Amino acid sequence: MAAAQIDGVETALAEKLEGVSLDEVKRILYGRPYKSLEFSAEATKLAQDGDFQLAGYIVDAQKEQTRAPRLVRVAAIQNRIHRPTTDSVVEQRDAIHQRVAAMIEAAAAAGANVVGLQEAWTMPFAFCTRERLPWTEFAESVYTGPTTQFCPNLLDEEKDDVIWNTAVVISHTGRVIGRSRKNHIPRVGDFNESTYYMESTLGHPVFETKYGRIGINICYGRHHPQNWMMYALNGAEIIFNPSATVGALSEPLWGIEARNAAIANHVFTVGINRVGTEVFPNEFTSGNGQPAHKDFGHFYGSSYIAAPDGSRTPSLSRVREGVLVAELDLNLCRQCKDAWGFRMTNRLDMYAQKLTEVSNPDYRPDIRREQ
Ligand SMILES: NC(=O)NCCC(=O)O
């Protein structure tokens, strides 16, 4: 039987602490406190009727003399699957489309300008099974598939029948601006994704939108600091990290990696993880000597947004679906760049030369020993 899940760190802290102690613990863990966003009655009702969490924060910046604030409302949506994995592919996908449509509507009613969804959000995360069918049938064309007709981020089946893990960026005009693919494919635990799709050939594209420049670092790419860095060097101001990851593997890392990337690269980062436990029809093993099983473990949600000054929002729930909305002042990116200067001091030329040497298979690590 699956272990009981707590709702989250914030809920647990609020149950045990109060007053100044609670405020101080939150400040130490999350940085400066944010004001809450006031939601319209419509947004609140949509969340209540739909039984999903709606949380919102204001991440402001210092007022400047020559530049107006660049305010943008970003939403992160975490969802679970809505039909058993034994239902047909179309039934499963349609049920998620319907659910996420209601959540996007709530985000829009909360004033969101940009909405980000989780990795492979239209399907169960079936890559643990190593089975081809029916799971590969969830792959769709970026430009003509049923999900792009509906909205972004899916598996992308392209010419030559190569499958990629793709996020699609759709502008406020409703047109596809472009796509970004997963650069780093996991080979850890039950994440047998290399069985299903290939490493990106697109590099680190950044998308100029009406609401800021956006990059997408898909899931396992968050463990690679240079992946975040390349999106930032290409001009991203907000980097989304659509993910699917489980508690036993990565939960202690989750709050650190996207947040550190925000600090190191003077950008906002948006970590989005699916929620719930997904059970598959056939047993699979994890290659670790443990008994065969039918579920992947608990996807712990906990989506959050981190700011370049190191502060971050509280997480969404570990167990409920939710919409997180944050009003960001993008001027904070420039302010942190000016204050900390990581871009000025990062010595890229030195690392470029060294990385070229290290990427040679004959490279020998530069370790000095006592003679
Ligand atoms: N979806 C995915 O890449 N998961 C890998 C596990 C992790 O990075 O936490």
UniProtKB/TrEMBL annotation:
EC code: 3.5.1.6
Descriptive protein name: Beta-ureidopropionase
Catalytic activity reported: 3-(carbamoylamino)-2-methylpropanoate + H2O + 2 H(+) = (R)-3-amino-2-methylpropanoate + NH4(+) + CO2; 3-(carbamoylamino)propanoate + H2O + 2 H(+) = beta-alanine + NH4(+) + CO2
Gene Ontology molecular function: any one: beta-ureidopropionase activity
Gene Ontology annotations for the cellular component aspect, listed alphabetically: striated muscle dense body
Phylogenetic classification of the source organism: Eukaryota, Metazoa, Ecdysozoa, Nematoda, Chromadorea
Assigned protein family: Belongs to the carbon-nitrogen hydrolase superfamily. BUP family.
InterPro entries per record: Aliph_Amidase/BUP, C-N_Hydrolase, C-N_Hydrolase_sf
Annotated GO biological process: beta-alanine biosynthetic process via 3-ureidopropionate; thymine catabolic process; uracil catabolic process
Pathway field: Amino-acid biosynthesis; beta-alanine biosynthesis
Keyword Hydrolase: yes
Domain CN hydrolase: 72-330
Keyword Transmembrane helix appears in the UniProt entry: no
Transmembrane segments: none
Keywords: Hydrolase
Top-rank EC class of the record's enzyme: hydrolase
Gene name of the encoded protein: upb-1
Domain of life assignment: Eukaryota
